[in-house]
Design goal:
With 239 residues, the protein is mainly α. 78% of the residues lie in helices and 0% in strands.
């Protein structure tokens, strides 16, 4: 490992302007690592809410077919196809309905695509949590006069989220890394910023080694946090 780093020419890469570009993007717009983190922060609550709704729908009598078709189709489709589909299909769909030409911002298209894709996996995680709740808890809620909506969102969902936290965080670690695929539609997130820098400096090993280290540090930190929550949850159950 020391031998590898000893032969890297890091000095041309680690200039003030290059580091700023990798971390923040161009001066007039957010990009780089900051955009990657911002996209992840936006996507977590969106996919959690939509995934929870899909999980409830899949356990219901009337909407089970919709949630099942949605989840199975999305899970069988590569993420890169979903990104392309959202980016190119939305303008076509809007034009067919309204007759007007629109262009979708790449960042908006990427956020929609990741929301569609990740929600399907979150739905399955939440559904497994819902199925782990005993009927006694639901019956206790009904005996207290709660409606089905109140039982789900005030009693069951907090328990489910608590139990599913480790799995949820693992899924969000994967989503954080998958945001690098947004580069294919021109989003200048962290990986795309590194690619642009490499096209200028032609120091692939140096630049992508830095990128790999940054991804590892953030993903490993999130993984340790998930492990901490898992241990804490097990301790609470054993008390």
């Amino acid at each position: 490992m020391f031998f590898y780093f000893k032969h890297l020419n890091l000095k041309p890469v680690l200039t003030k302007d290059n580091i700023r570009f990798l971390l923040l993007g161009m001066p007039d717009q957010i990009g780089g690592l900051a955009l990657t983190i911002l996209m992840t922060v936006i996507l977590i609550p969106v996919t959690l809410v939509w995934g929870a709704v899909l999980a409830v729908m899949r356990n219901s009598k009337f909407f089970k077919w919709f949630a099942t078709v949605y989840i199975e189709i999305v899970r069988a489709t590569p993420l890169i196809m979903v990104i392309f589909w959202v980016y190119f299909a939305i303008p076509i769909f809007v034009k067919s309905v309204t007759g007007e030409d629109i262009s979708v911002q790449p960042v908006i298209a990427a956020l929609i695509a990741f929301s569609i894709f990740t929600s399907a996996y979150i739905a399955e995680i939440v559904r497994s949590g819902l199925n782990s709740i005993s009927k006694g808890i639901k019956e206790a809620g009904e005996s207290l006069g709660f409606t089905k909506f109140q039982i789900y969102f005030y009693i069951i969902m907090p328990l489910v989220i608590k139990r599913m936290l480790p799995a949820l965080i693992s899924q969000y670690i994967a989503m954080f890394k998958d945001t690098s695929l947004a580069y294919i539609i021109g989003v200048i997130e962290f990986f795309r910023a590194a690619t642009i820098l490499n096209n200028r400096l032609f120091l692939s090993m140096e630049i992508f080694t830095i990128v790999a280290i940054v991804y590892f540090i953030i993903a490993f930190t999130m993984s340790r946090f998930a492990r901490y929550l898992e241990v804490k949850w097990r301790k609470q159950l054993s008390d």
